[in-house]
Amino acid sequence: MKWQSYCLIVVAAVLLSACTKYTVGGTVTGLTGSGLALQDNAGDNLSVSANGPFTFASSVADSGLYAVTVATQPSGPTQTCGVHNGSGTIARAAVTHVIVSCIQPGSFAFVTNQASSDISAFSIDASTGVLAQVAGSPFAAAGAAPAAAAVDPNHQYLYVANDNTNTVSVFSIDASTGALTNDGNPIATDNGPAAIYIEPSDHYLYVANRAANDISAYSIDNSTGQLTPLGNSPFAAGVETGALQTDPGGNFLYAANFGEGDVSAFAIDPSTGALTSVTGSPFAAGSGATSIAVDPTGTYAYVADETAGGIAAYTIDAATGALTPVSGSPFAAASNPLSVAVDPSGSRLYATTALNSGAVASYSINASTGALTLFGTVGAGASPGFAAIDPSGNFLYVANANSNDLSVYNTISGTPTSVGGSPFATGSSPGWIAID
What is the reported pLDDT for 335? Predict the structure, then answer.
């Protein structure tokens, strides 16, 4: 009779599993328009009117499939919303990490000026890309030698990493004018903060501390913008960690390590923000790894190797986050590459060149292989550094450290062409650009 009891228990467990249902949901960020509607499994319509968490009304049985899609894009203003981590199989737990990211053309550009310890703020003409100084700009950085900045995905706050004071400052952004208000309470980092990144759900912020070889991690209070250090932060990284990037779903964080010429890869715990090293990390890049970019599908990653003079390319394992070199990598650069940026279509990569060469190189990306092909270069200012692309993909911005200005290019055709009035004057030694 024991086998009969065992069988009954097994059957009961299977039936219970089949009858148990779990919710499907996640987070919406960047929504400013109205009319956004989501679907799960081509039904169960859900209207979303604000940023933050969402959950579908209907649940899905264990081992059942879910597939979240955008049924209606928002309008007024028109936006494009994309879904990440949107499909899979229920595995005895609620789904909470679907990310719906909504974008629109940039309204403002913020530039950190390291030598003058302030922030230049510009409004962006959406049709031409031409910049105009925001009233009150430049704004005091509330810290010495601001090295990096990031706008949160909901366009409310600007975060600035201050290299010489080892802090992060928080500013509120006036949605109408772009003016910055210092929210006070700068929060401590480790030594030498050099890069800053907010993961796509807008829950966690990470700072690469180049002098300390680690990464500080914080949770974000979305109602106030204030940061709270994670209990087990900072997390050990590589030597001279100076650049950060996540995949579009916010599942993995990648850090370029200048001193070792490699890339540290971490899995992000969506519930806590904690970082766990990916198996095989760090992954070899090239000497002087300075910048990292991930394509909008999360398929490929690219690293600028300044000293080696090339660009390393990888495929990303969507399940593990591991990096595998693309055939032909590293790809020869026009000169020593310092910063790389991939456009929102995933078809082009732009790289600034270091050592006063004053140029921006343009590459096409093979969608099937991730391979790069150089198709042109254009002039920039003296010592072009950080590069950023408008969310629309129409404009490219490059900070020129030694000429104290910002070059702006129209990239609609693929080949960058200077917009009227470019370059635009900044403060002293502009180093980082954040687009809102």
Answer: 81
More confident residue, 198 or 354: 198
> Are the beta carbons of 185 and 155 closer than 8 angstroms?
no
* pLDDT of res. 11: 45
pTM of the model: 0.94
Q: What structural domains does the chain harbor?
A: 2-102 (2.60.40), 106-435 (2.130.10.10)
pLDDT value at 152 more than 80: yes
Query: For 285-335, how does the pLDDT look when each residue is reduced to its tens digit (9 = 90+)?
Result: 999 999 999 999 999 999 999 999 999 999 999 999 999 999 999 998 878
